[in-house]
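Class, look over these C-alpha cells:
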Amino acid sequence: MSRTRIRTSAADSACAAAVELARLAAEEIARPGEVGEHLGFESEGDRVVTHFFTCLDRAYRGWRWAVTVARASRARNVTVSETVLLPGAGALLAPTWVPWNQRLRPGDLGVGDLLPAEADDDRLAPGFTETDDDSDQQMIFEYGLGRARVLSPIGRDLAVRRWHDGDSGPDSPLAVAAPAQCSTCGFYWPLAGSLRLGFGVCANEYAPDDGRVVAADHGCGAHSEATTVPSMTPEQAPPILDDLGYDPMPADDAQDLG
C-alpha cells in the first residue's frame, strides 16, 4: 500500500509529528508484529490528526490501523484520542446486512417456527375497514367473531401477481402442454370474492396442483374433459341375422304355420 498524506485542513505540526506515539497506541491493542509501516496522516480538524499504519494480520488484509491524536489549545503535549482498525482499498468486508424479513423465502418456515407480521405490514388492513368491493365482505368486523386484520388491497394484488407468475399460472410448462384451461375443468373450484373470476382451487386428487390455488387460465393433463374413458360395462354383441338365404319347407308344414 503506497504512502499517502491527505490533508483536508492545515494539520497541526505537533500532532502530525506524533508518529511514534500513535504507533505505540496501536501496538497496545494489536497483537505483536501486527502494526506495520506508517502510511500517512489526515487532518481531522484543529489540532486533531489521524495516523494510519499497515495491518500485518493475515486475517485483515487491506485493513489499516487508524490512531487519532489531539492537542489541547496552547498545550504542548499530544494525547491519543482513539485507536481503531479501518478497512482500506481492497479490504475484505462482511456482506451488507439484510433484515431477516427480506432474507426469508417461501418454504423457510418449519414446524414450530413463528413468523410475526409487523404492525405496519402493507399486506394487511384493520378488520373494521370496509372495502370498495362489495363482494369482499371479509373486511367487515364483528366483535368476538371477526379478525383483527385482514388482507389489504396491496396484499391481494401481491398474491395475485405471485400466483399468476408462478408454477400455478398460465406460463408454466405444465399449463402450456395442457389440453385445456382450468376454468373449463369440472374439478376447478372458484374462489369467493373479487378473485373468483381469476383463481380457484384444484380438487382433483390425481392432479399435481390438488388442493392448491391455480389461475383460471392454468391447466394440466388431468383436465376433466381432456379425454373420454371407455365404459367399464361391455356392450352385448348384436344378433347375427342371415336375411339373404332361405330354407325350403314342405307345403304341409307351410299350411300348419298359416
Confidence is low (pLDDT under 50) at residues 138-144. The longest strand covers residues 35-45.
